[in-house]
Amino acid sequence: MALGIVISAIYVCTALLSPWFQSIGWLQNPTEFLSNPINDPPSMAHWFGTDVQGYDVYARTLFGSQAALQVVVVATVFSLVIGVPLGLFSGYLGGRLDRALLFLMDTIYTLPGLLLSVTVAFVVGRGVLNAAIALSVAYVPQYYRVVRNHTVSVKTELFIEAAQATGASPWRVLTRYLLLNVIQSVPVLFTLNAADAILTLAGLGFLGLGLPEEVPEWGHDLRQALSGLSTGGIWWTALFPGLAMTLLVVGLSLVGEGLNDLINPLLRRNSWRQ
Question: What residue segments make up the domains of the chain, in order of their start?
Fold first, then answer.
């Protein structure tokens, strides 16, 4: 978990400090390309080389972390804000509302996440907010299912019955007694979804459905690198964006696994015994 936190912290710092690095001259403008040679290999002038359009790969790789984290955080927050309340109300109230929401969420959940995000992105168009919406649609059912299932099991506990017997309103029961008891797995789900969202965003960018072309984004850069890989063996345009994306996914996944061990110590003990 410590390694995952370190990797994730490095990416967050890179995303926050990239504009400052550019302002003091340590980074080239990632949208500037006319003054650069095309497909130039890594050198002192361009540490990661340049791509087929003349963009500095080093600058675009570092600024790509800014776009990725911005979209992924917004998307996962959207999913959490929508999925958690729906799961609480559905699991606690039950009845027709529960059956209708469960059917809807199960239907969405059965669809491949990337295919669903591609469909939504095609409808809403490009942009940071639109890309976040396209990603969040695939993750809302996961938060809903986790919270709803925990709510169904916890609402029969004695302390919930005692709160109801003392005249507590449904809103008070949900917010004071149920919420903190059913969101224990949400932080784990949040980090794992963030890792998956990095790959999905890259897939959207690779298909030309993610962010606008002028915004540095790893998936779009990998798409631009295809021509160089197939014709001239220009490896640097694909290696560095792909490596940056892979390391961030690994870091977030390690954080998620570490949180899972902390929140569910019984699972950790069982894995040690086996």
Answer: 2-273
2-273 has CATH 1.10.3720.10 classification: yes
> Look-up: residue for tokens 């699972």?
267
pLDDT at 161: 80
Stated pTM of the model: 0.84
Q: What is the pLDDT of residues 184-236, one digit of tens each?
A: 778 888 888 888 889 989 888 888 888 887 788 898 888 888 877 766 678 88
